[in-house]
Amino acid sequence: xxxxxxxxxxxxxxxxxxxxxxxxxxxxxxxxxxxxxxxxxxxxxxxxxxxxxxxxxxxxxxxxxxxxxxxxxxxxxxxxxxxxxxxxxxxxxxxxxxxxxxxxxxxxxxxxxxxxxxxxxxxxxxxxxxxxxxxxxxxxxxxxxxxxxxxxxxxxxxxxxxxxxxxxxxxxxxxxxxxxxxxxxxxxxxxxxxxxxxxxxxxxxxxxxxxxxxxxxxxxxxxxxxxxxxxxxxxxxxxxxxxxxxxxxxxxxxxxxxxxxxxxxxxxxxxxxxxxxxxxxxxxxxxxxxxxxxxxxxxxxxxxxxxxxx
Length: 310
Fold this sequence. Notes:
Strands 1, 2, 3, 4, 5 and 6 form a 6-stranded antiparallel sheet that branches. A 4-stranded antiparallel sheet has the order 7-14-9-12. Strands 8-13-10-11 form a 4-stranded antiparallel sheet, with no helix packed on it. It is about 40% helix and about 25% strand. The radius of gyration is 21 Å and the shape is flat. The chain has 8 helices and 14 strands. It is an alpha+beta fold. It folds into 3 domains: about 5-90, Jelly Rolls, CATH 2.60.120; about 100-155 and about 275-310; about 175-265, Jelly Rolls (Sandwich), CATH 2.60.120.
């Protein structure tokens, strides 16, 4: 394999925002900062990468330019993994698939919380009288700043990488498939279930409070869809019930050990799972920024310019 260990000094740039992604990295030692608009007047640190974490994988999974600059904070050592070596890397290190999935899912969870907070604040801004809007600025400053720094990055992610990955999976063929009749429960809200699922045919509905008078379907899934992947990472109870909504609904069930086996036997399927998670994370980020844009516009248009409150 073409893996390369690299060492960086303090403030060295490891990857640069806007550059094309030809590899991804795992931080072995040290820390690294994640920055938007690095080196500019409006530079903002978005987060910190700790030893053991992967970074840069989204650019190669979705073939997008780098979305942030990564800078070493003190001495840092990394492994660089070329994009063309991804399948081989995970085939030779199958336990690392679950680790990268865990990290992506944690980012999705964090971004979901930010998005839900932004939607709640947007509703509050819309329902606040014009004369009182300025008092909200301390609450919405995070969202206003996020939009101002990233307003040129609000571009819907392409599904092309997903389509290519799906084609590869269809050619490889599914394994461990179960067929469900209409109305069958695949997993139940409140129960712990250490599996993820791929819907290969039919329809699956995700419900809150399934079977109760106030039951609500929160999403409908069509093939090919992924669901329940958080069960591979967390031991928390399910937050929804998955129900087959057509006869002959065909679902592939993947356990933690099964995921590692897939990395060896069918790496293209693992790549599709990672692409799917990466796409969801990027889509969430875009939805968050669009909501931040609406907050900024509603606030600025009816409550005064946000810059006057900084």
